[in-house]
Structure formats: C-alpha cells, structure tokens
Amino acid sequence: MKESNWKYLKSESGPNIGPLGTRYDTLKNPRNNKEIKIMVIEGRDAVNVVAITEQREVLLVRQLRFGTGEMSLELPGGLMNEGENQLDGIKRELREETGFSSSSWRYLTSVSSNPVFMNNYIHTWVARGVQLTNMLDLDDAEDIEIIKVSIPKLKELLIQGAFTHPHAISAVTAFLLKSGMLN
C-alpha cells in the first residue's frame, strides 16, 4: 500500500464475474488495530477518447448502461484486451464503436475507475482529424448511437449534466480544462 500505515495480512481469490475478478483482502486498521476483510474487484484497464473530426466536432456515443437501466451519453471507449497497450486499445475501441480512425493521437489523463473497491484505471486520449474508415464492429451487448457535437456544445452538455458516467465526466472536464475552455 502506497503511503499508508494499513497492514496487509492476507489476500484470497474470489469468484470471477465476466471480465472481472474479485479478491478478498484482510487488513489491519492502524487507527483501531482491528482486522477488516474487504472485497476488491480486479479488472483490466480501460480507455476512452475525445475524438475530434476535421470539422472540429467531437464524437459521442449514446448507449444503454445495464447497471442503471438508462441511456448514457459518453465518449467512445471500453476495456483493453489482455496484453494490449493503451494506444492500440483506444484505436480499436474508436474503430469498433464509431467506424472512425485517426493518425493524430495524444495522451490526456488517467483516473481510477472506482478506488473504493476497484483496482483498475481508465486512460483518456485525444484523437484529432478522425475520419470514417470502417463499418461498426459492435459487441453483442452494444447498440450505439453516434452523435457529433461542437466543442462549445460539449462544454454546454457537461455543464447541463448530460453526462452521467463518471469516466465521461472526468475525461470531458480534463479535455476542456487543458483546452482552456473551462475557467
């Protein structure tokens, strides 16, 4: 544990849930010296992308999120494949979910998916000059609507609360901040 006085006592594997694994860690709380057992969800890192067309429009995807049962407006992205690097993963995700690709990529930021009980991160990239080059290649559990918005509209959507997925909120906020659009 980085920068922590918590003491790890043991770790046990738990059941796998689709692409996710679980483990149970037993730790000692330095404040009260009590042992606790917590569950950690283990997963591969994920990627998402602020994909900007030559017309300076950002590609968004709208899809059903099964946890909430609601449609969610997001950036294209998803889990990286085993052994896949970030850039290859986001190029693949952009191509599969939107049919677009780019030759101009820049790393933006990363955040923990949910540090409360998950061990993975999501990495955000910016792709400029994206162009439609392929047919969609959606997973069986995907039905995606592609939406193009101007960068000022992207800011407006963020401020209005149109994004409910925390990964989209953090990525759009980081992009707008680094672009000087949020003051």
Describe what you observe in this structure.
- The protein has 183 residues and is α+β, with helices and mostly antiparallel strands.
- It contains three helices and eleven strands, in the order E-E-E-E-E-E-E-H-E-E-E-E-H-H.
- The protein has helices spanning 86-98, 151-160, 166-178, and strands at 7-13, 21-28, 35-42, 46-53, 57-65, 70-74, 77-79, 100-101, 104-112, 121-132, 145-150.
- The strands form three sheets. Strands 4, 7, 8, 9 and 10 form a five-stranded mixed β-sheet that branches.
- The mean pLDDT is 96.
Proportion of strand residues: 35-45%
> The biggest beta sheet, please?
5 strands, mixed
Number of helices: 3
The ordered H/E elements are EEEEEEEHEEEEHH
Taking all residues together, what is the mean pLDDT? 96
What are the segments in which pLDDT stays under 50 over at least 5 consecutive residues? Answer: none
Helix content: 10-25%
Classification by helices and strands = alpha+beta
- What would the principal axes of the Cα set say about the shape? globular
What integer value in Å does the Rg equal?
19 Å
Q: Total number of β-strand segments?
A: 11
Determine the N-to-C terminus distance.
35 Å
Topology, element by element:
Elements: E1 7-13, E2 21-28, E3 35-42, E4 46-53, E5 57-65, E6 70-74, E7 77-79, H1 86-98, E8 100-101, E9 104-112, E10 121-132, E11 145-150, H2 151-160, H3 166-178
Parallel strand pairs: 4-10
Antiparallel strand pairs: 1-2, 2-3, 4-7, 5-6, 5-11, 8-10, 9-10
Helix pairs in contact: 2-3
